[in-house]
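Annotated sample (chain length 1055).
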Amino acid sequence: LEASVSERIRYIGGVRFDSSDKDAGSIGSEWAPFQRGLWVLPRIELSVQETKGTQTKSTASETTPSEAASSTASTASGDKDDASSQLIQGAVLAVQLCWNASEAAGLDETWATERRRVVEALQGLRPPRVSSPYLGAVSKQTEEVTKDEFLSQVRQALEAFQSNSLQKVVLARRVLMDLNQTIDPVELLRHVVGSTRKRQYMFLFEPCAGNAFVSLTPERLCKVQGTDIWTEAVAGTWSLEEFNKLGETALRHASPKHSDEHRIVVDFIREVLGKVSRHVKVCDEHILRLRDLVHIKQSYHAIASSGFDADEASRTYALTNFFCTEMSPTPAVGGLPLDEARRFIKIAEPFDRGLYAAPCGVVGAQSSELVVAIRSCLVRDGKKLHVYAGAGMVQGSDPAEEFDEISLKMRQFTDAFPATPLGADSVAGRLASLTELPNMNTLWSFLVVEECVRLGVRNFVICPGSRSTPLVVAIARHQHANAVVNHDERAAAFYAVGWAKAIGAPVGVIVTSGTAVANLLPGAVEAAQSQVPLLLFTADRPAELRDTGANQTIVQPGIFGAHIRWEKDLPCPSTEFPAHVVLSDIDLAVAHATGALTDHPGPVHLNFCFRENLAPDGGPVRGAPERTSSWDKAYVDTPQIHRWLESTSPRSVYVPPKRRLDSEPVLQELVDLARSGRRRLLMMVGSLRTAEEALLAEDIARRLGAAVFADITSGIRQRRVAGNYADQLVRCPLLEGNLLQVDAIIHIGGPLCSLRLNSFAKAAAPRLHVRVAPAPTRLDQDHMVTHHLPCSLEALADALVRADLQPQPVPPPFWQRLSEAAGDALKTALAASREAFTEPYVANAISHLMRRGARLQISSSMPIRDLDFFARPHADALIAPMPPMANRGASGIDGVISTAAGVCMGTSAPSTLVIGDVAALHDINALQQLACYEGPPLTIVLVNNGGGGIFNFLPIAKHTDVLSKFFNEPHSVDFCCACKAFGVDYVLCSNAADFETEYMRSQRRPKGVCVVEARVGLSHEQNVAEHKRLEEAVVRRATEELLAQVRLGGTRTSG
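Output written by the structure step:
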């Protein structure tokens, strides 16, 4: 490697466990793609170089041979006064091209081919998938060494310790798992990592499609940078349960074996480091906590001695090679004496370790980092997993405890995949499992839930109730289904809305009959208006009980009216309704919910009528003992069900149509305008759903050369592409819509929150007003749209690329100067009112204090308006722009906390919810759902202005005789007591300094929820005056800037 690359290139790969063993045997066929050692050059490398406050990360896209040229581009950092900008320093995207320079005749051709491959690889990059795909199930699991055989091997090792031929040996186990479908190794890593990634090193290496090595290891072999060397000793293991019960001191005293094991490794590392350094710093020994285990860990820092004073590149490679040959395998994964331990391992283990417990990582001329790849998994042919883990044996080891320790270490892989749902390998066995179900209710419910899971619907919100028992039992007993219990049906619907938004996939809601169904309506309305996929599964009494006065029986079909995409009233389960038709109905329901048929996702209602027995019981029917719940087993013994049982695919799949923009006249008009010298185009960007949509919106704006007015929920309102503070700017008399010449308006995403920006577009009245939306519905509140373009943002962006429109600098200089002027004016004006602790100040503070990469959720009413008006722009980060979430479909203030709880369920990022006091009162019982929340930190900023302050901005404000009592909703609720009642952390802030401190502290929490009440200092009337003062400051500054540009233009003309 050292001789063949430039100093700017890094290799990714690894060498085998036995790479330094001169007596190593042949390579197992399963490890053939990895050879004895394989290092590849990534065609695309995305990395974050280690700077203050960051950790090095790297991902590779595609491998190329070693003769290469490298080109890197670093991202811009944020403002120095923005603390969060440290999170993006050192970000580098490297594109490395490789071609055959030895064949001069074909140089141009090979160069062009490689350049094309790089472009294709770059175009294939997408933001990470939000929702977790269905990863399949384990159809077969075996282990080559039985437990008794392993215990015998440990006893043989103990005899070797007694004879002093061995001091320590590490024995491994390998579990073979066959999946019932192929798996993407990246999705496997994402699934297995969960929330433990901060405590482990992650490594994934896929030299060819379907064959990959994945490791989550707590141990780093080495890090080399210049003359600095870092390494670690990780040995000594207890279960986390045992550690939490007894504590560190008691465990170490009770188990000297673990301390002895750690000491052996520590002594070895010190001895090896002494060969390359005279200056070794031993860091404090500490306990490393993982998901199921704890280890003793010790770190070392050394300075390489003069023997490695060659040039930097040679020194880095020499030190890295030293660790691979002298310290690998360490006693933590091999044993002592090493040669004797190797011989013992070869006899005891009937499998090839390959890269397991071997050096893997990144090697370059300037720095290298290698891990010891324990806790690993080999993926073969896309659906066979070989899971590896081991344990160190020393004098005093207990064979059974060592076996159990390895089982715990394997759990992150072995527990990731449950057994096949029906627990049988053959169709006949699965059919037999179906026929054993005790009644038709249980059978139908199983079919429903299994088909949902196959379609990617794995998440459900359950509201307990008797009539929905069959569906609840089916979800509870399905190994792939995830369920959350919510006692309030209204809150449950909003919870599902947030969950579905976060994962980008449908979520099911299960409720019993009666008013429980009616309580779903507000959430269903929001889902319909926001195009959020939901499955509303409502249980019902038999149809013959309707209109009879029967208990808890209402007319449920049609209850959601126009607010659903599709509905069906299913009969009570019986053999008269074919089983495969049940599956077909679920397929159609999910297709409607996801928008596969019409590009119009939303809620779907399936009403399930159930008779007794509701519980999964056979025998006599409850309440009618003369009847039986038995059913004809031939009902499921049909060709259709046989085919369904043969695979894990759904019964039927609705393939969305491929929509591509070709020769649309309106598209050509936009292209012609963009190519003209005028470029008086305005792009209005409403709420967007994903980071990918936000990036596509930016690309469209750049290719059109358009000015951008963006809503806060677009994800680009605070980025460079947008004209920031547009709402205040258009208040300037010189910037009114009927004065500025706008040739075309392109509106993408949802509606904009700002009334002024909508009025500006209406006043501008351009000849061309294009509304871009894939949904087959009218989105034109002012009836100004001239062309409805039914396509996705991806299709529009692709059409502009094919039209050869090159990206232009945006925003246009005119709007950029005005945005900067507005920002300066607001910064000064807000600083002047900091002591008053105002609502605009809170919104502005959140916009720049919130952690980059965190999710922002905003309530309707004043919070979303203040963030839209006053959010501070930030430097574009390496991370994709994640649009803030808000229930802007129907713009209600109910269910906001429940929605936020659902979002947290579906994301692994920290979150902030900004909510007003009245909206919080509407959904205060949702705090119960968050009381036991253990996910990434959620900070609820509760802006308390003592009631509905938004009404003071409306015409009703001048009618003071009715304003306060009937509109402001004054209250004296003690939110501290409310939070205490639900067991949620709370802090009160009544000034700017306390708020900034407490908000930052809450975001730094490792997990859980904290309510930060911002009790602002202005009355409703003063708040209106403060907003006007800030707006006037922007208008004055914008007017000055415009007049300065006019004077400057006149001076240049006269000159």
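Annotation: The first strand starts at residue 10 and ends at 15.
Annotation: The two ends are 63 Å apart (CA to CA).
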